[in-house]
Amino acid sequence: MGIEIDPSLDYRHWRKDFASVFPAIHSSFYAYSKRDDVFQAIKEHGFRSFDQFNYLSDEGLFRYDAALYSAGGASTLDVERSMVNDAPLYRRRKDTTVISDSGGFQVYQGIWTPDEYHGKRAEILAWQEAISDIAIAMDVPTGSVHSDKADCIDSFEECLTWTKLNCDWLIQNRDPRKARMLNVMQGLSVDGPDGALAWYEAIKGYCDRSKWGEQAFDGWAFGGMAVRNRSAILRSVARMLRDGVLGPDSNQRWIHMLGITGPEDVAFFTLLQRALRKVLKDDGFTVSCDASNPNSEMGKRRQYYAEGAQGIKLRKALEMEFFDYHGGDTPDLAQFVRDWVGMHPDALTFDIGWFRDHMELLDWDFDLSRCAEDDEIEIGAEFVQDSPDFLLAAYDRLVEVPAFKAFAVERLNAHPGFVEFILDRVVDSAKALGTSALAEHLTTENYWKLVEMKSPRSGAAAATDDDSDVEDGTRPDRLTPMGYIVHTCISQEIYLRYTYEGAAAEIEKWPELADELADALVSETPDTKLSTLLVP
For residue 494, what pLDDT is reported? Predict the structure, then answer.
């Protein structure tokens, strides 16, 4: 039995009426969960276990029921080792759904050749059927043709040939009782011999239950150009309906969109889902999508989604230098402004109205009788160095000065609104998770421990890019493991709200579009009808 949470932090309801968003989880998030130092840090910060940061768990600080995990980014494809390394996925709640990507993106990136990828087919399939509910079939993305990294792929036909070789094997060897399998759409254009429609005609047979029975694939996934082009999606779906490879009768009740989840995208996918549910008379038909944003931004750039006065946006995790400006329980804004003034000895300029309201904060008199209300006054920087109250007042004015903003970003590596550094990053982000545990234990001292950066290596280790010899497994200038876990958890929660709420706002602009899509998809001339619709 798990912990109780604020109902407002249970996001499972979004999936009932909207396209389902599947955050893509990075293997390092789970890898940290079994480290002794992380276990100790979790206890020191007052949390029960790592599972409190895992929204798929009964212990999660917020609740959601969908995630994507990729074979290309997994720590291992060996099932027994995966059960150890990725243990939080294996002990997830029963109401959750995990999609496993087969790793075709690794071919696009040149990490695997198509032949190496094909050689891993048994290992990948066994891993997918062990760890997930829905598996993406092993495709070779057509984007590889134009990828500088995948220099061994020369043509659309080559991508299609390798994909069909993989699917021929998968359809014979998969166990449909363990996981659904989604057929993958690709293409370099919409029409033509290298287009998504040509790709569809070549692979649609893998979804033919009259031929393959229970072994037939169970739905569709769109990737590459095919997922970024609205026309490719809609015209392909119209053909799927025509050919009877969508809907409860064929068991193809799922379409997944790979690697794309902006609010406008989720709005479009939701409208498509509503249209298909109407056409197929199937309230369980699902359109889903995935994105790595909340996890990859944290890992690569130390940025996480947080909510503040300016709404939800990506923000930098605080670095240690932040605490140089923190005195006791309140930030030392005066010291922050003093440092900037010291670096810019030119006179400070203020409009007379503002200065008249604040001049009493200085220790000397000014005669403003000859000044008009729209005049400006220049004050030598050295006169305000020892006037902390004036510096505090001046902060609100200086924060709009471009040079001051640049200083704030450089010095604090984050948004220049200094008060927000405390409120947004520590207090508001904790409240967003709705748990007094997080808010209570993210004190200044503990937060410093979370964000403390690792020192760069020295000697021979510093001269190489090999991170394998780093004693604690982290790279230089990265967050501590505990800091990464906490910020990733916050980012996941805020990103879901950002995406779903943004999608809801977009959908309100298109009140009739779902019905119009439904009519166009099953019309006698769907391509023509669909081309007349204004699609977000």
Answer: 85
For residue 67, the one-letter residue type is A
Q: Which residue has the tokens 């069909």?
A: 164
Extents of the domains making up the chain: 317-484
Residues 526, 235 contacting (CB under 8 angstroms): yes
Tokens of 7: 């109902």
Please give the C-alpha separations between residue 249 and each of 55, 210, 240, 244, in angstroms, as whole numbers. 33, 11, 13, 8
Structure confidence at residue 386 (pLDDT): 66
**For residue range 247-263, what is the model confidence (pLDDT) as tens digits?**
887 889 999 999 999 99
Contact (CB, 8 A) for 250 and 209: yes
Could you give phi then psi for residue 225, rounded to 5 degrees?
-60, -35
Q: Exposed (0-12), middle (13-18) or buried (19+): which is 380, by Cβ within 10 Å? A: exposed
pLDDT band at 466 (very low <50, low <70, confident <90, very high): very low
What is the pLDDT, as a whole number, of residue 330? 43
What is the rounded CA–CA span in Å between residue 23 and residue 17?
18
- The structure tokens 């293997």 sit at 27
Tell me the HSE value of 382 on the side-chain side, using a 13 A CA sphere.
Answer: 0
- DSSP class of residue 136 equals E
pLDDT higher for 266 or 436?
A: 266
For residue 40, give both structure tokens: 């100790």
> How many whole angstroms from its chain centre is CA 93?
22
Residue 486 CA to residue 470 CA, distance in Å, equals: 22
Report how far apart, in Å, the C-alpha atoms of 108 and of each of 243, 268, 534 are: 30, 26, 32
Separation of alpha carbons 38 and 454, rounded Å: 15
* 245 touches 212 (CB < 8 A): no
SS3 content of the chain, % helix, strand, coil (to 5): 50, 15, 35
What local confidence, expressed as pLDDT, does residue 2 receive? 56
Q: Tell me which residue of 183, 166, 186 sits closest to 227, measured CA to CA.
A: 186
Note if the pTM is more than 0.90. no
Distances (CA, A) of 94 to 58, 89, 218, 270, 271: 10, 11, 21, 25, 28
Q: What DSSP element (H or E) covers 420? A: helix 418-422
Q: What is the DSSP string of 16-59?
A: HHSPEEEEBPPHHHHHGGG-HHHHHHHHHTT-S-GGGG-TTSTT
Q: What is the mean pLDDT of the chain?
A: 81
Please tell me the predicted confidence (pLDDT) of residue 422. Answer: 37
CA angle 374, 377, 382 (to 5 degrees): 160
Burial 55-81 (b: 16+ CB within 10 A, else e): bbbebbbbbbbbbbbbbbbbeebeeee
Contacts with 36 (C-beta within 8 Å, 6 or more apart), sequence order: none
- For residue 468, the model assigns a pLDDT of 36
Instruction: Give the integer Cα–Cα distance in Å for 118 and 168.
Output: 11
CA–CA gap between residue 504 and residue 511 (Å, rounded): 11
